[in-house]
Amino acid sequence: MSTTSIVSSKNVCVIGAGPSGLVAARELRKEKHNVVVIEQNHDVGGQWLYQPNVKVEDPLGKNPFLKVHSSAYASLRLTSPREIMGYSDFPFVIKKGRDMRRFPGHAELLLYLKDFCDEFGIRELIRFNTRVDYVGILLHEFDGSCKDLKWIVRSQEKMSGIVVEEVYDAVVVATGHYSQPWLPRIKGMDVWKRKQMHSHIYRIPEPFRDEVVVVVGNSHSGQDISMELVNVAKDIHLSTKSVAHILPGLSKVISKYDTLHLHPQIESLQEDGRVIFEDGSWITADTIIYCTGYSYSFPFLDTKGIVSIDENRVGPLFEHTFPPSLAPSLSFIGIPRKIIALPFFESQAIWVAQLLSGKKKLPSQDEMMLSIKEFYHSREVAGIPKRYTHELADFEYCDKYADYVGFQHLEEWRKDLCISAVINSLENLETYRDSYDDNEMLQEAYQSPHFKQAI
Ligand SMILES: Cc1cc2nc3c(=O)[nH]c(=O)nc-3n(C[C@H](O)[C@H](O)[C@H](O)COP(=O)(O)OP(=O)(O)OC[C@H]3O[C@@H](n4cnc5c(N)ncnc54)[C@H](O)[C@@H]3O)c2cc1C
């Protein structure tokens, strides 16, 4: 990667003021770009801005432009300890009078993000209550290369309805990917007349009091929601892809509660309310909650087919960030899953900012395309379905990525605390957020420069 001394500032539009967009704004401004962040909600935070009113949303989230962004439920707590979460220079410290738990509730992360905005003066860059409806290439400037590419960004202010069309040198898409429900195809889904909803709009257990509920999917949300429904619903039937591969933590929970039952996948739904499972067993349910995950979705983005979503693979994207033929003018922050999110987003933001200013250079388009193809091939060989292209779960990858911009590698204590929490959760699903055995690692974290800088 060569460097050059020609440094220029660009007019950059960042879409979204969640953890990705906020750090993008900071890094872009640091690099002397003119930044506008457009955010559809009334405040910062993205997923962490809890939205209690879900009545406005289709229960299965069938609209391409959703009305509710956050999928956070009232009881949601972080799955990873707070110490590993913070941006590199802004640790997620415990504050008196707030949620002081190591695995705090969603509101605490929102407060952290608000503190981040205050510390770095980011709010002044954000246009709230404004939704981006269209992003497209300014065609008369487009000669098929990424040189001097410009973007039309059309947005609408929610209250006034005023539509604004602007031209930017670069667009950073930071709109998240935990909002658009992904639904399985199940025979009879259309004829089953009772309540069907996606966990995207699940908020509290009370509406399910005394109901028979089928929870589909046993990933984080499916587990959390099932565990909270055991105290309220009449019966919970958890349907999983593979009954044989249930982890010990979940097994313990299932054997503890008489009202929680495990089932294989659903074979079909019947008009009379029956839910038939693949092993032939059946129950009559009041509600089905699909905790089946989310799809990438950029309903506003028109790249003339250059970037597309194929079985939840957004591509082609060099290092999950840049479409080679539009780079670095168009970039995506926050696409990877199963990473330590905030520091990774920060490294992406630094790279985008420095590429736009000309401080750094990308490889040629051909080289980037080759790298993407090699990556796809390596995943295929490893038997990883296309759908999981952006699920990384790989610290080495994060370090390699950091090397592009000279960003620090993940500290060993971050990796260790992360792994320790994952292992604990696999064994002790109900208690891992309140009972842990990682004090030595924790002390190491507190003695590290990351935490010392906060004193
Ligand atoms: C239930 C749940 C639990 C989670 N738990 C954890 C956890 O414990 N730890 C963890 O690290 N991560 C967790 N996550 C993942 C979480 O999404 C990320 O931590 C993080 O919020 C991603 O940040 P982001 O900025 O990329 O996206 P988001 O937080 O989703 O922010 C995107 C922003 O873009 C805005 N936006 C979208 N479209 C438009 C548009 N057209 N115009 C204008 N603005 C737009 C949205 O309003 C939003 O503010 C969880 C997610 C969910 C759903």
TrEMBL record:
What are the names of the required cofactors?
FAD
According to its UniProt record, the EC number is 1.-.-.-
Any idea what job this protein has? Catalyzes the conversion of methylthioalkyl glucosinolates of any chain length into methylsulfinylalkyl glucosinolates.
What is the designated name of this protein? Answer: Flavin-containing monooxygenase
MF annotations from Gene Ontology: flavin adenine dinucleotide binding; N,N-dimethylaniline monooxygenase activity; NADP binding
Instruction: Recite the lineage of the species.
Output: Eukaryota, Viridiplantae, Streptophyta, Embryophyta, Tracheophyta
Family, according to the entry, reads as follows:
Belongs to the FMO family.
The superkingdom of the source organism is Eukaryota
Keywords (alphabetical) are: FAD, Flavoprotein, Monooxygenase, NADP, Oxidoreductase
Keyword Transmembrane helix annotated: no
Which SUPFAM superfamilies does this UniProt record tie to the protein?
FAD/NAD(P)-binding domain (SSF51905)
* Source organism per UniProt: Lithospermum erythrorhizon
